[in-house]
């Protein structure tokens, strides 16, 4: 029986796209992205190996654990289904940034007192990759974005 790594990895990619909608709490955000796939050498020979890389972003560790567990389970079952094997490696590179409430309130209060009520906005969470997330595992922290606005008023 022919074992085609391209078929296996293609099926795996299609299957894992359902993890965020079927295995996680829909009220908890999760993004699973496959950004790189490598398979085979010459174009006319069935690929013996395939490798994929991507990212997982969540707002909490529990959801991230679920995504990792399900990705591994899907990989093992897809490989078995096609008579192949899998080496599953999942690297946790960046943790989510979780702002500590008291620190957030302190920084917002200082900004309001220094620059006025309109200086503080209430924005939805973002999944931007930040190494700051590692700090929140050890210290009470608050990550905020600062900027400036330059208004030009034109009148006729």
Task: Describe this protein's structure.
This protein has 5 helices and 2 strands; from the N terminus they run H-H-E-E-H-H-H. The protein has helices spanning 5-16, 19-22, 61-81, 101-115, 132-135, and strands at residues 30-39, 50-58. The radius of gyration is 22 Å and the shape is elongated. It starts with a helix and ends in a 21-residue tail after the last helix. The mean pLDDT is 87.
Key phrases:
156 residues; alpha+beta; two-stranded antiparallel ribbon; 5 helices; 12% strand; elongated
What is the strand and helix layout of this fold?
Blueprint: H1 5-16, H2 19-22, E1 30-39, E2 50-58, H3 61-81, H4 101-115, H5 132-135
Antiparallel strand pairs: 1-2
Helix pairs in contact: 1-3
Strand order of the largest sheet: 1-2
Helix content: 25-40%
Report the end-to-end length measured between terminal Cα atoms: 79 Å
Strand-residue fraction? 5-15%
The count of β-strands is 2
Brief rundown of the structure:
Helix content is 36%, strand content 12%. The chain is of the alpha+beta class and 156 residues long.
